[in-house]
Recover the amino acids of this structure.
């Protein structure tokens, strides 16, 4: 009988964790959408003024900053860097597309 109660309690706790994970995933998607709205505006500004789609100096600064933030938050800095590199690669692709559409 105790095993059944323990299993029910575990399932209840698991459901709570999963609800939180679902909320966090939704927030991440909305945050990424907002980030890409901003970077689209940056891409248009760069294209309008003939600036290059990529900015390696800025990217290096961001990697250094996010690695420190990750470390301070007890998140693997290597993971944070890989995630940022993935996002930046997509941003640059968008900027290149915007530049091409605007004659750059």
């Amino acid at each position: 009988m105790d095993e059944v109660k323990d299993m029910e309690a575990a399932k209840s706790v698991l459901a709570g964790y999963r609800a939180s994970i679902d909320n966090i995933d939704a927030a991440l998607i909305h945050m990424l959408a907002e980030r890409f709205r901003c970077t689209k505006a940056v891409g248009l500004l760069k294209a309008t003024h003939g600036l290059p789609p990529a900015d390696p100096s800025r990217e290096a600064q961001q990697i250094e900053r996010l690695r420190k933030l990750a470390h301070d938050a007890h998140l693997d800095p290597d993971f944070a860097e890989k995630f940022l590199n993935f996002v930046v690669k997509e941003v640059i692709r968008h900027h290149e597309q915007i530049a091409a559409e605007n004659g750059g």
